[in-house]
Request: fold
Amino acid sequence: MRIPAYCLHRPTGQAYVVLPGTKRRTVYLGPWGSPESRLRYAEVIASLDGTPPAPVPSLSRPPAIPAPPSLPQSISLADAYALWIAHARVYYRRRDGTPTSEAENIERSWGPLLTLFPNVLLASLTKKDFVAAREEMIRRGWCRKLIKNRWERIIRGLKWLASESIAPEAPVSAASLPHLIPYRTAAPETAPIRPVALADVRATQAHLNPVLRSMVELQLLTGMRPGEVRELKKSDLIWDGAGCGRGLPIGLSLSQHKTLHHGKARPIPLGASAAAVVAARLADAPADCDWVFTLWRLPRPTPYCRRLYGRSIHIACDRAGVPRWHPNQIRHLVATEVRRRLSLDDARALLGHDDPATTRIYVDEDAPAARRAAEAMEELLKPKEPPQPPKPEPPPEGATE
Reply:
């Protein structure tokens, strides 16, 4: 039988031994490297059936064991960030191995902190320094919600550095600032996303190229996210019994979507109109390209990126003379119309949400409800006209006074 090893538990500095058997059991022995933990280790090993007793070290002279590595205190902020972003570029990847946009978001989040304290030791940063970094975010014009999201990425990086024994825990506590309160700071507030008017969408589509026009139409018919439409692949299509590539697709099973890392599927049914939109693009797409929607009139098939998709719609809005809108607003439009015509649960199922509360974020139902309430109050408070006295009946013909 192999003698279990004397191990170190780095987070607590305790020594431990894992006992073999059908159910592995961990026994903590005391401070790592101490004579007491060595003595306890020998007693535990000796208690195992069929195992020869381990030699008990002399308490007068502890064994020569290297001390556990101490947390580095001399690493600079820039060097620590370089390790964290290198890990993020490898860790945040899709199923097919392509990188997500998380590494780019991390780079932007750490920008103000690196601008102010590039060569400062990470362990020496105080709460005042992190407050100054957040003030720099406000000075750059970032809105409050964006600052909140990007500050959470900084905290996540500091926690990873501490868990890997690259940096101490102190910067995590120093960076844990209270959240900014709406309208109580200089950070601007963003207006909530509202559904775009269908008339504005139709006017904009007239000034888009055929690929972008089809992408917008597919969003209208399915309520898909802009990223799901941009990254749609031929391998995501579900075909009827006629076989793959023949006839019209009946649905989508997205290989890349927002909640994939949670282990959730994203099936999307396609009606006749949506299937015709996809089939029309497949007819024009190169055979060796897996993307459904690619840049218009480019020799090398390339999908639209997020910025180009939104910018192209803004240019078309200006040409059509309508207010600018963003592709995300189409999803809000679809949710609102499905909720109004069918039910909230139908809108939840179409958008792929688990919780109806998430769907309510997309549904603009306050304005119609408020209008109905105002009309009811107007009817209630409208002054009623006094009853008119009855008109006297005319005397019968031939009657004399």
In short: The beta strands are 7-9, 14-19, 25-31, 237-239, 249-253, 267-269. Residues 77-175 form one domain. The first helix runs from residue 35 to 46.
